[in-house]
Amino acid sequence: MNKSILIFAFLAAALFGSALYMAVKKQHITIDESVTKIWSQWKQKHNKRYENTDYESYRLEVFAENLEVVKNDQTGTYGITKFLDLTDDEFAGNFLNLKAQYPEDSIAEDIEVDPKININWVEAGKVSNVKSQGNCGSCWAFSATASVESALIIAGKVDKSISLSEQQLIDCSGDYGNYGCAAGQKEQALVYIKRYSITTEQNYPYTEKDVQKCYFDNTKHIPNYTISDIKIVKASTNDLVEALKIQPVAVSVDATNWKYYKGGVFSDCKTYYHNHAVLLVGFQNGTWLVKNSYGTNWGENGYIRLKNGNTCGVANQPYQPII
């Protein structure tokens, strides 16, 4: 048989197989009146608008598939979140852009922390307000600024209204292995801050984009703040909680399923994989308290509680800025 005919036949079979797979997959998702009612309420709540009816129909299909995941949840922590019109790949591409660490990396010593320990830097007034990274994979920058903000508040140099500039890190720390909205490392952002200092959000506003040239000038952008050192916390849950007693800690986690998190104590994640950077701000009632960068309309007013132990790899890569 002619080679081109063979190739054509192979491609046709592949396309037919893909179409058949999608048809079978969609047969399992019923978009009935109850789903469309939830969809309408969800759109109104989150002020969702789509460019045309075809695109909205596609988003409704994605929403319905995600809704099935929520309905089948056995953890009690899933709910109808603002991310339910996104596929897993879209969520990862927009919101999970930490430079990923893989199973061959060291895993923290995982010892259950004494549940009687009570640390809550939010209640103590030493944590700045929850922010939103928007549609930019800049979690690494938000983790770094949040850790420095808390360190400055605890040191008495600022109050909790402080908001440092993530955009400065996006635009200016490329030489430190960071790639703006595409990917980055919280620890390398801290290295940049130690060398150059960082100004406020007001001086260097957040744009959710990484296409502009760095324009930071520490002689003009006043105030600006620096750190004297960076502490690498030993990869151990016990060492992590001891560091947390001093101040909040910048950590890396597996947030693959955080798209669905609505509230409660979460544990549906891997201990060896990281794709998101956040700020650990407490350990209370036997659970870790984590400040995220998805806005206050996600999770528990912008926070998530993680199960005791090395849940989501929280203890694998902890860092603290030293003022």
**Main β-sheet description:** 6 strands, mixed
What is the CATH architecture descriptor of the largest domain?
Answer: Alpha-Beta Complex
DSSP strand tally = 10
- Report the CATH C-level class of the largest domain: Alpha Beta
CATH topology of the largest domain: the name is Cathepsin B, Chain A
Strand content: 5-15%
The helix fraction, in percent, is: 25-40%
Task: Return the domain count.
Answer: 2
User: What's the CATH superfamily of the largest domain, by name?
Assistant: Cysteine proteinases
- Give the structural class: alpha+beta
Domain Peptidase C1A papain C-terminal: 115-322
Pfam families: Inhibitor_I29, Peptidase_C1
Keywords: Disulfide bond, Hydrolase, Protease, Signal, Zymogen
Domain Cathepsin propeptide inhibitor: 39-91
